[in-house]
Amino acid sequence: GERDIAVGNVIGSNLFNLLGVLGVTALVAPMPLTISPNALVFDLPVMLGVALLCVPLFYSGYRIDRIEGLLLLALYLTYGLHIVSISTGMALAERLEGWMLTLVLPLLGIIVAWGTVRAWRRQH
Predict the structure, then answer these.
(1) Which of 47, 48, 92, 109 could be disulfide-bonded to 85 (CB atoms 3.0-4.6 Å)?
(2) Name one GO biological process term (predicted).
């Protein structure tokens, strides 16, 4: 139905943004695109982590509930706040990193594990 179209639109848009925009930019740029070391140290693990986070979310009945959507939105807003605080040199960046490592990531792991077990029990 309409939800399938929305999910396909989101996935297709992300693929185009990553592959199409980067490809066209690399073709028309006068010099090669350089990748910041910070992107490899922070952004790449975040992208891989989010991709891994989606596996159990999608496994839970092949749907994303409101609580899972809220979780994804909260993670996105936190990531955005972190990127802004780093780029502006705010002191919040270091505290946010510590907060993410000590509170958010373990809590996220517990929530994802609980949701995965709950979904697995529903299916079996």
Answers:
(1) 92
(2) intracellular calcium ion homeostasis
